[in-house]
Design brief:
The relative contact order is 0.14. By secondary structure, this protein is of the alpha/beta class. The protein has eight helices and six strands, in the order ααβαααβββαβαβα. Helices cover about 35% and strands about 15% of the residues.
């Protein structure tokens, strides 16, 4: 189901389960997490969400530097959480929100929508342009539980950095991207392309 900005939050916000403790995995001292989840799984989370740093290092010296496309832990009531669902959580009690933040003209509206859903700690996937990666507003919104950030690369500028795709060309780009996502088969991808459902 798709809705325009300004409408989707009001029609779907009540469907979001905001019970963070029951929904997401808590970041705790590493030894305790290893006892519960195992060394291998904790290392996977450290690589994906903490930039390779250990859980204890993250808890003792946040903030840390991360790549623009990184998804990060988020902070609620003096506690850090991973944007990873607890295995016993019933997803029928919640909804997954996908926000299209690829349009330069609609970027502010998309971020407003993200903040609205983020205030309820919704599970969210954000699709945006790689050219927006250094925008401070996007970085600030990583305090919410973003499960994935999909960066669409743009044409390189004169400095060799990803530029901004024109809003006139975006429909074509997004259509191609949607087709790729529709027919993507994780089983045929290499190990580096796959993500386990629990992490």
């Amino acid at each position: 189901e798709s809705d325009p900005f300004g409408v989707s939050a009001y029609s779907h916000l009540v469907l979001v389960d905001c019970q963070v403790q029951e929904k997401y995995r808590k970041l705790e001292p590493r030894d305790h997490m290893v006892k519960i989840h195992g060394e291998k799984q904790v290392r996977v989370w450290e690589t994906r969400y903490l930039g390779g740093a250990s859980v204890d290092a993250f808890l003792s010296r946040t903030p840390m530097l991360f790549s623009p496309e990184a998804v990060l832990p988020f902070y609620v009531d003096d506690q850090w959480y991973l944007p990873v669902l607890r295995p016993e959580y019933d997803t029928d009690n919640d909804c997954l929100i996908i926000i299209d933040a690829t349009s330069e003209m609609g970027f502010d509206a998309a971020l407003d929508e993200l903040a609205t859903f983020g205030s309820r700690y919704a599970r969210m996937v954000v699709i945006t342009q790689q050219g927006f990666a250094k925008d401070a507003r996007l970085a600030n919104l990583k305090k919410y539980p973003l499960s994935h950030i999909v960066m669409v690369p743009g044409p390189l500028d004169k400095h060799g950095e990803p530029g901004i795709i024109s809003d006139y060309l975006l429909p074509v780009v997004i259509s191609l991207m949607g087709a790729a996502m529709k027919f993507f088969n994780p089983a045929e991808a290499g190990p580096e392309k796959q993500h386990r459902p629990d992490g």
